[in-house]
Amino acid sequence: MLRFAPSPTGDMHIGNLRVALFNYIVSKQKNEELIVRIEDTDKERNIEGKDKEILEILDLFGIEYSQVMYQSHNARFHSAMALQLLHEIKAFSCFCSSEWLDKKREEAKESKTAYRYDDACSNLPGELVIDNMNPFTVRIRKPLEAIVVKDHIKGEIKFDPNEIDSFIIMRQDKTPTYNFACAVDDMLSDISLVIRGEDHVSNTPKQILIRTSLGYTKNIEYAHLPIILNDNGKKMSKRDDASSVKWLLEEGYLPSAIANYLILMGNKPPKEIFDIKEAIKWFNLENISKSPARFDINMLKHINKEHLKMLDSKELSRYVGFADEEIGELAKVYLEEVSTTKELKSKIKPIFSEKEIPNEFKESANTIIKVIKNAPYFEEYEDFKNYVMKESALKGKNFFKPLRLLLTGAEHGPDIAVIYKYIKNYIGEIVK
Ligand code: GLU
Description:
Elements: E1 2-4, H1 14-30, E2 34-38, H2 50-60, E3 67-70, H3 75-87, E4 91-94, H4 98-110, H5 126-130, E5 137-140, E6 147-151, E7 155-159, E8 168-170, H6 178-188, E9 193-197, H7 204-213, E10 221-225, E11 228-229, H8 245-250, H9 255-264, H10 276-282, E12 293-294, H11 297-310, H12 313-319, H13 325-334, H14 341-352, H15 359-374, H16 381-392, H17 397-408, H18 416-423, H19 427-430
Parallel strand pairs: 1-2, 2-3, 9-10, 11-12
Antiparallel strand pairs: 4-5, 5-8, 6-7
């Protein structure tokens, strides 16, 4: 069983979508189920409705899953497991106040050493615990031996015992911390492989320690995906618009193209343009580069254009607000110039909108409008043009400039003869 475990705390980041895609592809390859676990235990950071938004995005990208779980629904298991660890003295109650711990952290900072909890409460006599009315957290005992993680992408990573202290697994309000809830849930769901972002590497030994302490012996495999960098070589963050899947969709990138790019980056695919189904045939986690992948919007634009070209005309026309093959064909002509559905709309919409004609061409435009309104239907642009030219008695710039403006709403653009092919049935709507 594989899992995708997003937190409902903000817009879905492309890094998260990449994690979801990889989990989906590998679950199909291994013929194992994929579950979605909404990690909603950090109540203060949760944002209402983000869970639904995440699920909608997964649907839009064709990422199928067998089940959606909410981590908060497992609260009773988290408590039971913490209790088990306390009974077995693998965890202990810690009464250190947050002010005290902050002071210790500050001291460590001043002496330029890494802060580690000093185990002050690890061996309190029973009566000191039972008589203590102060709030307490539950901490798991630190490991005695090194913890080795064999990562599918990063290779073997060894964590020395002194890198991990006795960390908190239950907060004072008795809610589980991320590491505890995550480790327990992966165990309860019988997860075989965890694919997630590199920012979680340092959590992995902690989660392994939790499960080992609980007596769970099954090995869970790991693959941590390198971070995605922006143009400036910095980690892509909320400040980068393109980091938000919602933003990319609104900008007119197709889900199939976004998926294509996220699977392609930092990878060695056999081809550049593909869909998820094809990727399932050749995708290999071991081919993912260890170094960060750089997000290149121009590459995404190129891929998007290729995916738009592959759509059939009717489908493409829907993306620009029509349901008509001819408009789809017309959009394909404009694809020579632009790469997103938003840009395509900005080309198609002016064709059917009120036209703004510069003063110098207003008179000629009015003459042309009158002629076109009374013109018969012409199959060929040449015949249409010759007719309008003759009847309007205009020529050169005074004819071609206003004609293009009237037919397309733009001064420049693709060959008007090509455009005419697809708009000839709508001339009455276009030239009003
Ligand atoms: N909820 C975590 C996140 O969104 C992911 C945890 C995990 O995959 O283990 O970053």
